[in-house]
Records
---
Amino acid sequence: MRLSTTREVSYDVEVVNLTGNHFQRLRDLLESRRSTLITTPSVDHLLGESIRRSLEGVDFEYHVIQLSEKQKNLQTVQSLCARTSGLERTSVVVAVGGGVCTDLVSMTAAVVRRGLECIRVPTTLIGQVDAGIGLKCGVNYEGLKSRIGLFHPPINVLVDPTILRTLPLEHISYGLAEIIKIAIVTDEELFYQLDEHLEDLLQSRFQNPHHEAANIVRRSIALMLEQLGQNPFEMEGYQRLVDFGHTFSPLIESEAGFSIHHGNAVALDMALSSAIGALRGTISWKEVERIYRLLHRAGLPLDCPYLTPELCVRAIANAEAHRGGCANLVVPQKIGAGVFLNNGLDRQHMQNGLARMGEIVRGIAP
Amino acid sequence: MRLSTTREVSYDVEVVNLTGNHFQRLRDLLESRRSTLITTPSVDHLLGESIRRSLEGVDFEYHVIQLSEKQKNLQTVQSLCARTSGLERTSVVVAVGGGVCTDLVSMTAAVVRRGLECIRVPTTLIGQVDAGIGLKCGVNYEGLKSRIGLFHPPINVLVDPTILRTLPLEHISYGLAEIIKIAIVTDEELFYQLDEHLEDLLQSRFQNPHHEAANIVRRSIALMLEQLGQNPFEMEGYQRLVDFGHTFSPLIESEAGFSIHHGNAVALDMALSSAIGALRGTISWKEVERIYRLLHRAGLPLDCPYLTPELCVRAIANAEAHRGGCANLVVPQKIGAGVFLNNGLDRQHMQNGLARMGEIVRGIAP
């Protein structure tokens, strides 16, 4: 006896001016449904009053909770469940915050009453172009990055780049890491746009040059959604270009006890992966150097004491366990295209990659 | 920018003679995939040796863990996650046990590495016809029944009725509660089959009459899958006939600190719901009495100190929160068909229902 069915998934990522419009779009989406909004103290400080005023009359609860990468675990999900006790099955959970907040709140929505609908309002650059717009959510487990998690697509994502203007500079760098990632493996032109405007984008927190900044955010989102749409539940094989920068980085983060930000870890991973690619002849050293220079200008690190051959060997083994038995290490083929490496990723090769990485870095930032 | 996709779901519930065939079917399903099998001490005592012998050479871990309804919570899911640490993303998690075991293990599989495939081998009657064959899994939260949970369909369910022959008698009663449920709301003939053979089925633990017992299990599974298939993710409205017996029962269970078994709570709920139906004229009192007699013969309770008008009023409010704003109380229309009640479910009506319930019970089991 068989049960066969399909489940439809569809969501919009809208780039909107929320703050200039008093969160009207969020109000429209919630309509008369009972909802709970969870945000963090820093976001509350900036946007709380505007949000609460705009949602006057809406049947919603407003919770401000400190959430950090170190608290991204099942215990926190469990405590967030308490904030949903007044919700019905038709209710909506809204996450307004960075990647940690949207991940934790999405995970909570996913497990309450067999799944509540979730709206995400990512307030960091990394959230707006990467962490907040995908189908997955996850938490760390016993020091392992995102070991616990599941697919729980949002019903809407509202992206407002004007929110970024007050972000600490390093948060712009973290987001740039993911934008540079998607550019390197899918879009040469985006890479050159970044190359042209990087200092302006960084210093202005993506407010200037206005037109270009908005376009880069939009383009990054579109590229990410295109990649996700090709293999939304990761059932169509384990080769995902968006895994570029995400093979060594999970271990860097967990080894550092999550004191190294995801964006920084991704940058380190991209630098090493690019060197490994060049060692194997997939990309020229000249282009690799160009990648390093852009990462450096973006304020991202290019060396790290945790990045050792031993860590790399373990990371490759983890990738094999996670990607259907093959490491599927993503390396650039050129700027704008990626390719997957599976063979010869042994300790010696890792050591060679790290050595070449060090040489390039000394040439750029002595 | 929009992401639209669909997710395919398909699984077989196979009625097989596992024990007579040394779990060969399970071995075939696992093939060469690394897997973890989680079972309980009582099932291990009965089947452990046979399972381990049959899976010799398969890359699997075998874990025996005490799991009870009182431990059906997120903390236990978290501790079960540790038993999956050796698994890859292509791995399979196997649950061999009753409803609590399959629920907890399915929930664990659902959240590890963004969802591992799960095979269920339900070893209780309630598991084989109801708890183990659906798309959902769930745990209790802060005393609230199944408040935490999600859809994580298994990839296979293996049902072997010969496993039931050593079950404690009361566990056959619990399973009969769910079989009687599906019969009352969907299949008059199944009700009459039960009526004809009840004592034999109960005393033989569903081994005799052999042909009829197997047919009843098969029929119950087919009816359940048919109902689930009509609204697999509960997105097509909130009227589900399989919710018969599941409006008051969650509160009975939680009020009793989960010392009353789900099967018993469902029986009490069906008795009250039937009386409420008769008070509203949806079903004749004669048929209601017939339902009560069958429940009584099945060893199921018909009165309970926790079943008060106050509990019923709260249960109706909970149902409204859970079923899109309407209680959608399922009551029988006749034996073999159900209907949904939404109005007039106030305290007085509950009190009248409980009073009539008491009268019928005193007539049957003085």
---
Amino acid sequence: MTFEEIVSAASRLEGKAIKTPVMTSRTVNKQTGGEVYFKCENLQRTGSFKFRGAYNALSQFTKDEKAKGVIAYSSGNHAQGIALAGQLLGIHTTIVMPSIAPEVKLAATKGYGADVVLYDINEVTREEVADQLAAERGSPIIPSFDHEHIIAGQGTAAKELFEEVGELDMLVVCCGGAGLLSGSSISASVLSPQCNVIGVEPEAGNDATRSFKSGMLQTVHNPDTIADGARTPSLGNLTFPLVMEYVSDMVTVNDEELLETMYFMWERMKIVVEPTGALATTAVLTKKVDVTDKRVGVLITGGNVDLKKAAKWFLTL
Amino acid sequence: MTFEEIVSAASRLEGKAIKTPVMTSRTVNKQTGGEVYFKCENLQRTGSFKFRGAYNALSQFTKDEKAKGVIAYSSGNHAQGIALAGQLLGIHTTIVMPSIAPEVKLAATKGYGADVVLYDINEVTREEVADQLAAERGSPIIPSFDHEHIIAGQGTAAKELFEEVGELDMLVVCCGGAGLLSGSSISASVLSPQCNVIGVEPEAGNDATRSFKSGMLQTVHNPDTIADGARTPSLGNLTFPLVMEYVSDMVTVNDEELLETMYFMWERMKIVVEPTGALATTAVLTKKVDVTDKRVGVLITGGNVDLKKAAKWFLTL
């Protein structure tokens, strides 16, 4: 994969995706000693960066491919991205979602016009459900991260960040299946070659960190973490080699740290960030990533969280 | 007051205030039939537009005036605006605040380096406390809205909005003492002369609406509303005539409606908005202001709310 594919994706997304704002926080800079730029993909359409990859993938369909519709499986944000991209491009979308997905994500996905097929995570895998639908309909499955067009689309967020704030010493990115991490690091390699790209995972779902450190693909099964967007079982065939090639380090943070960061971001930065979306910021605030005297980019990846669930979490702090 | 004063304020604020993002929401447009542009002053420094007026006022102090420091009284956002402006300009600030002010506002004001003097709203007025301090120290009191430099500073938010999105049919603005409403309507009168400017107040504190409809200055005493930034007792000597001259209409919304709007904005728009900051959006979502087929600007004025208090509110819905 090359940076040119990200440039092409950016031109497809022109006028479709929001050029999300970049925020700074004096409090964060004072606490960490760094100069931190937050790229707010929680303010992206559908509430996460996932719209970028989804639209980039679906907009390349031929007329015949469009007619067949697409299938996707997702714990949430990829679902919404595919659903809205399908709606904008006139492509029928079917989303396979776990019955335990947050209500806000189910409602939003349906709101974008997708057909939602629920499955019980204890009975069957989402791959089985999606494969069966795909076989019945002859429709392709668009995976949530391990796909060149998805990775290229996700790489446009970091591209925008570098174009707005210039070169950085460090870019901190959350990691589920590493679609965003891969795309971001390809953008960094061209637009800010000296930039160290750091991936951040939830402690309970640290498969990518173990894979990165050992050089062998590691897996995890249904990790127990509030970062529901990073419960992916492993890196992919495309993303694992990209992470090994381009990423400088991987760190983990725990759910308690995530919750404290969310509280800070909501109350002080005035933005709603979901647990997965707070992974990178948490690594910076807990100093697991040392940003002292560095110019640092942080990707805030999503804001899709059930507000009542978040309210209950916050009242425990 | 003229638009030229707002232009001067904008140049003083260049590089000091954030040019806040303008957001749109497909859901809002679908529900209301309008094309709505949200100017996000909750993402302004100190979490509200009040920094604009405060910085514009303090930056015009002479060296001698700077040395004497300033005093302000405020239920919160003006306090933070003055405190940060003072810190940036090297001016000592003393803020008189009610002891019942939200903890997040007290903490933030102190965090910006201000001295905070608390008073009991049942024992004494804030004017009495501030007047005594001013007499003792020979320092000026910077009022929260009824001051030309404050009004001019607040008018820069609407100026930015018109410059970004072009002329509008309607601009909907929250109203406490009408510093923002006055400044916004002066900007509208020059940059979008056909634009109707609508003020929105909490139902319990509807003094400005009554003043507007009757043409006689009306007051209210400690109104019971969650919109704590709009509990002002009346319009001012400067703002009342400006409202009469430039504003097209005034409407009110109640606390239940405000809370539902906040819930929507937090969960769907991914931004933290305080009750007062949600006044204008509430008027649009409840259709008290009809935006059908219109291009409409809405000022989201602040995001300073105690997160645990908001969490408890949301759990009652």
